[in-house]
Amino acid sequence: MTPFDPSLVTALRAKLHAQAKPPGALGALEALAVKLGAIQGTLTPSVERIEALVFAGDHGLTEEGVAAYPASVTLAMVRLILSGRASVNALARAADVAVTVVDAGVAADLPPHPDLIDAKLRPGTRNAAREDALSPAEVDAALARGAEIAAGRAADVLALGEMGIGNSSSAALVMHRLLPAPLDDCIGLGAGHDSEGLARKTAALERAAARSDAGDPRAVLAAFGGCEIAMMAGAFIGGARAGKVMLVDGFIASAAALAAIRLEPMLAERLIFAHRSAERGHTLLLAQLGAAPLLDLGLRLGEGTGAVLAAPLLRAAARLLAEVAPLAEVL
């Protein structure tokens, strides 16, 4: 992966500066337009085809009571997404975004479905509070499969999100080691915990963190990661290498992006972060990565919902470059 072409970036900024509007009048949308052009290597980027990939996986950590919902909810929600009746489906229809589920590690068999990619690594991770969640070979397989999936999609933009009960715990541990940051700063309420549940979650993650001193990205993914988190990390790398625009959803997707950046540092400037989650830790993670999210709506659902909501902004930014007349033509 190579840095952006500085001459192209200069040309993109000059094109925007010369348009029939005050320079910089569209603020962050102009910066987004420049980034899209730099990613695609053109003065006229196109991001009409957008697909949300929802990576799904179960977590052995749920045995420790880290989640407010039972692990069976992962399967139930995957089925709901495939039926077209989940929150992400409703938002995706409004934003003209296709939705595909990637079974990275759901702890149940799923029947074939036109909107499902069967990439099951294993039926959920092992309990990271007691042993490594994944083996090194499983991490390598997840990274490779994620890269393959992303590179093979036809869309211009891939919006990566997730579904997996317990995965905010896995993401907190990944953030703790790879940012790095104090564990307490990484742990949030997840999907609906009360104060008692948060205390139970914190104690379990402290046990998990004490169990392993992993610091290398692959070792951290093995010790604490989820099938869907490791596969998303691979997808960010593979999609970016294929020249696709990669849109990051919320806290869990950002933890996967963090792992991907630690594996491939040049990836950092190529990722677009959709929104700032209400999940504790996400603001710190974004700040440490130097990422400016497009939206801040207090979301904490997952499923790729924030990325789907941000998708129209990418279309607007690309059309800004392609369709606005130069000021010289109207004077």
Your description of this structure?
This protein has a six-stranded parallel sheet with strand order 3-2-1-4-5-6, sandwiched between helices. The protein contains twelve helices and six strands. Strand 5, helix 10 and strand 6 form a beta-alpha-beta unit. The protein has 331 residues and is an alpha/beta fold. Helix 5 packs across helix 8, helix 6 runs parallel beside helix 10 and helix 9 packs across helix 10.
Which structural class matches the secondary elements? alpha/beta
Measured as a percent range, the helix fraction is: 40-55%
**H and E string:** HHEHHEEHEHHHHEHEHH
Q: Any idea what the radius of gyration is?
A: 20 Å
C-alpha end-to-end distance = 42 Å
Strand order within the widest sheet? 3-2-1-4-5-6
Number of beta strands: 6
